């Protein structure tokens, strides 16, 4: 039943993608005054290379600590 709503996504080099981060644990992209209302997705960031089937290397800002 769960697989009915999932879709396989393929990205190529040069595509812009969003990064999903946990709001309470990850504050290296953007610090917020209220963590509860912080967005889950950050970006879009350009993709530099494809590492594996679901792993990609992104061009993040210089101040990011990921």
Brief synopsis:
Helix content is 0%, strand content 27%. It is built from no helices and 3 strands.
Description of the molecule:
By secondary structure, the protein is an all-beta fold. Helices cover 0% and strands 27% of the residues. It is built from no helices and three strands. The chain has strands at residues 16-20, 41-50, 56-58. A three-stranded antiparallel sheet has the order 1-2-3, with no helix packed on it. A hairpin with a 5-residue loop joins strand 2 (41-50) and strand 3. The mean pLDDT is 82.
Series of secondary-structure elements, N-terminal to C-terminal: EEE
Terminal Cα separation, in Å? 34 Å
What structural class is derived from the secondary structure elements?
A: mainly beta
Major sheet description:
3 strands, antiparallel
Beta-strand content bin = 25-35%
Low-confidence stretches: none
Fraction of residues in H or I helices: under 10%
Average pLDDT number: 82
3D shape? flat
Number of helices: 0
The counted number of beta strands is 3
Which value, in Å, is the CA radius of gyration? 14 Å
Sheet with most strands: strand arrangement: 1-2-3
